Amino acid sequence: MDGLRHGTQERNRPEQYDELADAWWDPRGPFAMLAWLAAHRATLVPPAPREGALLLDLACGGGLLAPHLRGYRHVGLDLSPTAVRVARAHGVTTVQGDVTRLPFADACADVVVAGEVLEHVAHPAVLLAEAVRVLRPGGTLVLDTIADTRLAKVVSITVAERLPGGPPRGLHDPALLVDRRALVRTCADLGVDLRLRGLRPSAGDYLRWLAGRRDGVRMVATPLTSVLFTGTGSKRAHG
Ligand SMILES: C[S@@+](CC[C@H](N)C(=O)[O-])C[C@H]1O[C@@H](n2cnc3c(N)ncnc32)[C@H](O)[C@@H]1O
After folding, report:
1. Is the residue at 9 inside a domain?
2. 143 lines ligand 1 (CB under 6 A)
3. Among 3, 63, 171, 220, which residue's beta carbon has the most beta carbons within 10 A?
């Protein structure tokens, strides 16, 4: 996936997730926005085609998607042993592993989800190839991530890391943000025509959340994909 660069070592430390293990499900903690994103991500997942259809949640973190899924067998994989433990405690069937080497069979999954992880790996094209390999033809790929733009660096890193509900300091490495064109091209080459849409928190909800009058914040779809964005697409039957 040309156009993506390797990360720097000062940010994006994998140990950060273990240090913050108690924060995954804290609605006012440093992962609060991940819970808002998970609720939105679930709206992009199609209804389960049958009871027990398989949804693979790559880099599942603490399993924040779990309460929003209906009819799926929710299997999550994450590198962080503590995240895997937390996700399991919330009903996710978990595997500790690397998103670039999935221990799953070809075409086994009805849905593959990759939420807020493309911007954390040095080789996102490998993650995508693995995600599409394990997806059945006709199955759905759902992802969300941060665009490689100057605006995103300011909004998602400089500003957001200082805001309540925003990511913890140092979570994101600007060198790993995702080139949208390269992403779409890579997915198309793999057999998934990805549709991108922008995403932002509802300003009104955020103010009410700050004032303690809401537990969470709704994420709102927007045409502007230059900061936070989602991607959805089906795997073509024939490549
Ligand atoms: C920002 S969190 C997102 C977690 C979850 N998808 C969510 O949205 O709540 C990024 C997650 O990616 C995981 N991660 C980072 N690199 C990974 C890799 N190579 N393989 C598996 N998990 C990875 C981290 O441990 C962390 O749980």
Report:
1. no
2. no
3. 63
Report the nearest atom of ligand 1 relative to the CA of 24: 9
CB atoms within 10 A of CB 149: 17
**Report field, pTM of the whole predicted structure over 0.85:** yes
Q: How many CA atoms lie within 13 A of 236 on its CB side?
A: 10
> Whose CA is closest to 231, among 97, 119, 107, 140?
140
Distance CA 87, CA 79 (A): 12
| Pocket flag, ligand 1, residue 98 (CB < 6 Å) | yes
Ligand 1 atom at minimum distance from 127 CA = 19
Does the beta carbon of 219 sit less than 6 angstroms from any atom of ligand 1? Answer: no
Summarised one tens digit per residue, pLDDT across range 158-213 is 888 899 888 888 888 899 999 999 999 999 999 999 999 999 999 999 999 999 99
**Interval between CA 59 and ligand 1 midpoint (Å):** 4
Give the chain's mean pLDDT. 93
Is position 158 within any domain? yes
| Band of pLDDT at residue 239, cut at 50, 70 and 90 | low
Q: Which CATH number characterizes residue 88's domain?
A: 3.40.50.150
Q: How many structural domains does the chain have?
A: 1
- 122-147 in b/e form (b: 16+ CB < 10 A) is eebbebbbbbbbbbbeebbbbbbbbb
* Centre of ligand 1 from the C-alpha of residue 77, in Å: 9
Which structural domain range is residue 70 located in?
A: 15-234
- 238 CA → ligand 1 middle, Å: 30
